[in-house]
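REVIEWER CHECKLIST
Item 1: Sequence provided? yes
Item 2: Single chain? yes
Item 3: Sequence as submitted:
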Amino acid sequence: MHKHVEERSLMLTAERQQYILAALHREGKVVASELSAALDVSEDTIRRDLRKLAEAGLLQRVHGGALPSSPATASYVVRQTQAASAKAAIARAAVQLVQDGQVIILDGGTTTLQVAQHLPADLRATVVTNSPPIALALATHPTIEVIVIGGRLYKTSPATIGAVALEMVRMTRADLCMLGICSLHPEMGITVPDLEEAYVKRAIIASAAEVVALASMEKLGTAATYTVGPLTDLTHLVTEPGVPEDLLEPYHRLGITVIRE
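Item 4: Structure as written out by the authors:
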């Protein structure tokens, strides 16, 4: 009898969690009190479910509920193959913002690497980067001066972070920065999964006259653990073709220039 009750409890837990994930996918957020009423269980039970789902990387817990988690949690090698066509389209659109004579900060990430690879062969500019792969991609470019930001290597991006990276970024005055985006959300703003990475991105934003977020559709409406800043830090959002207008409406409303190829 005890075994049967235990199995039934586990089945109900799995059913609840599937319901939560389906609601999250459908609505873009879930509220613990609403889930409690809909499923006729206590909010404590819902919080336990949310905690388990968060531990599995399936959502990001926030005060009172949860948001979709960032898709940018896989290794760098795996992420290079994810949304490859979207990243290439974003890169082609983003390079239209670049002009001769500019100082450009290229943040670490797979999409910013694509931007580096799409820069015109005759561009005369200075690229400041905390990304070793981007520095290598531009090593043979004939007319781009490359300045590499030092520090401890954050292997997930891979990009440099820490005190040395912060100091070098703060010494820079850039015309334009292009941010590798983990998560963008109208309420949560710009978020990342690593605290030190958040500090470096904040410094990059503060050092640039124009701030361009490069984000495929899967990163819009998601959240990670550490806040970089609000959406109002951005001047531009470059995303992929075909993103529904309802996803982009909050960015338009804030006066952010949205660019698609």
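Item 5: Key structural point noted by reviewer: The chain has ten helices and 15 strands.
Item 6: Recommendation: ____
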